[in-house]
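job 3f2a | input accepted
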Amino acid sequence: MKTIAVFTLILLLSAGIVWAKEYEVQKKAGDLSVVVKMDKNPAVMGENGVSVIVKDSVGKEVTDAGVKIEYSMPAMPGMPAMNYGSVLALNKNVYQGKLNFSMSGPWNIVLKIVRGGGKTVSTKFSVDVQ
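job 3f2a | predicted structure (130 res):
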């Protein structure tokens, strides 16, 4: 009986891992709509894949932009602030890249989009890295 209970618990835990949804956030950046997805939810220390879909005000995918993610953790007692950046590459209408979090805790993320004429729009959100 104890073996069946342990087996059932393992099965349920592994099923939760298999069906875990990736992290997703939808934001506005100026007149653009963005959907940001990270391949891990919650984000983890080390490498995390990120993809961004950018759409204009009529819902058409934007493929002529430069997209950069800046991510930072503020200074804490005994620890300086950490600031990193990643330029995303366009692949089949999706901007993709990697974020490498150096420690667990809350991280501030700024997504910057530059289009023709050099106009930059941005949006902010945060993730809690495990």
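job 3f2a | The beta strands are 23-29, 32-38, 46-55, 66-73, 82-91, 94-101, 105-114, 120-129.
job 3f2a | closed
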